[in-house]
Amino acid sequence: VPLGDDPLPLFGKHVLITAGPTHEPIDPVRYIANRSSGKQGFAIAAAAAQAGARVTLIAGPVHLPTPPGVERIDVESALEMAAAVDGALPADVAVMVAAVADWRVARSADQKLKKQGDDTVPPLELTENPDILAGLAHGLRRPPLVVGFAAETQDVIRYAQAKRIRKGADWIVANDVSGDVMGGDANTVHIVTADDVISLPEMPKGDVARVLVERIADALAE
Ligand code: CTP
Ligand code: CA
């Protein structure tokens, strides 16, 4: 995918990216998590760095190498991710690709929970995590361009349009995960903006990243 005539269209820009899942502790040895390989977010970080940006990649627990030229901050939980995003501001563009766990355990245990020897199970009370994307998009230090992701299994574009407005994002990259996307190397996405929907054919995650970075560079140049 060509990047136009400027080889470094994001030179001088700070790109903030979240990627991967979050792990929400139940006790020191157990957690609840979302399914996410982190591949798409890492590919966007790599493409942004190749386009000349300063890139801060806030990564949940994944097994991926850090792309060249990217500053990576590893986190575990949604609360840690939210704090790391806050600490990385200001940014020219934020791309929130992370599959953040919507809930955490209200009171995680300091010691490993033990089976009781009868049929009782631990009551796990959940509480909602902060919405990092919405907090950023509605916050005082909002980056000029805020891009969210949305993995959907049905009504992909309609749900993405609603999410874009609800969360205050400029764009939502809607990810059709009805097929075999999770953990795979290809992706089918629709870039949903205020005015239109750009549907890309299925392509490798690296190509999705390059198309998105090119569009981000165009938007920042306007
Ligand atoms: N997101 C976030 N913080 C959260 C939850 C989601 O920053 N606590 C971001 C994701 O990184 C993504 C976007 O919000 O960019 C959409 O996430 P998604 O899970 O699709 O949205 P939800 O509002 O949680 O809706 P759903 O009920 O479909 O999970
Ligand atoms: Ca969610």
Automatic annotation (TrEMBL):
Binding site for CTP: 102, 112, 130-133, 149, 163, 167
Limits of the DNA/pantothenate metabolism flavoprotein C-terminal domain: 11-218
Domain of life: Bacteria
Region ranges (Phosphopantothenate--cysteine ligase): 15-222
Family per record: In the C-terminal section; belongs to the PPC synthetase family.
Function: Catalyzes two sequential steps in the biosynthesis of coenzyme A. In the first step cysteine is conjugated to 4'-phosphopantothenate to form 4-phosphopantothenoylcysteine. In the second step the latter compound is decarboxylated to form 4'-phosphopantotheine.
Protein name: Coenzyme A biosynthesis bifunctional protein CoaBC
Gene that this sequence comes from: coaBC
